[in-house]
Amino acid sequence: MKKFPISMGVDDARFNFKAESKSTQLIGVVCQGVRMVKVVRNEIDIDGNDSTEKLIELVKQNEKHVQFLLTHTITFGGFNIYDIQKVHEKTGKPIIAITESEIDFDSVKKALIKKFPGDYNTKLNLILKAGNLYETCIETAGGKSKIYFHCKGIEIEEVESLLKNICIDSKLPEPVRLAHLIGRIF
């Protein structure tokens, strides 16, 4: 693996379920290694079903350069869950969906049933389609930390190698951490 891989980290911007606006921003940060090169964005519906297409659009805008796609979980804007397999197939990019804690699947299922009583299965199937949630340890400036991830189009050992190169001050990869920080100002 290259020492300074080009990756795009994606996270959603801050949003409020009670606000008049029913959309939020999807923020993408392109980095070479840990150095930010470019910021891109797209709009998604809160609790909608458009994050897969919007994520594909962001990657396609930068597909000549981006080698890896990293997202902060598989869920944006509440329960706007993206199809990790479809994004991988449409972009040809390896995808890693990072989360800082284990997922309580039963709690997520209950929340989906409550919020989407007539259509929770579609969203639930996207979570199941993401596959296994893997665990690894990251060594950062703050010490060792556990992190969890789903991945498509990349081997677990490659994910661990990539994370060693792009996690410095946080267990979140730098492109994802930057997208998260930028999303807080919207």
Q: Could you explain how this protein is built, in words?
A:
- With about 190 residues, the protein is of the alpha+beta class.
- The chain has a single domain, classed as archaeoglobus fulgidus dsm 4304 fold, CATH 3.30.2170.10.
- About 35% of the residues lie in helices and about 30% in strands.
- A seven-stranded mixed beta sheet has the order 3-2-1-4-7-9-8, with helices on both faces. It has a two-stranded antiparallel sheet with strand order 5-6.
- Strand 2 and strand 3 (about 35-45) form a beta hairpin.
- Helix 1 packs parallel to helix 2 and helix 3 runs antiparallel to helix 4 (about 120-130).
- The relative contact order is 0.20.
SSE ordering = EEEHEEEHEHHEEHH
The CATH top-level class label: Alpha Beta
Please report the number of helical segments: 6
Strand content: 25-35%
Q: What overall form do the CA principal axes indicate?
A: globular
**Which structural class is indicated by helix and strand composition?**
alpha+beta
- Runs in which pLDDT lies below 50 for 5 or more consecutive residues are none
Number of strands: 9
CATH architecture: 2-Layer Sandwich
> Distance between the terminal alpha carbons, to the nearest Å?
34 Å
DSSP helix fraction:
25-40%
Q: Considering the protein shown, what is the CATH homologous superfamily? A: archaeoglobus fulgidus dsm 4304 superfamily
Query: Main beta sheet, described?
Result: 7 strands, mixed
Mean pLDDT: 94
**Using only CA atoms, what is the Rg?**
16 Å
CATH topology: archaeoglobus fulgidus dsm 4304 fold
Total discrete domains: 1
Order of strands, main sheet, comes to 3-2-1-4-7-9-8
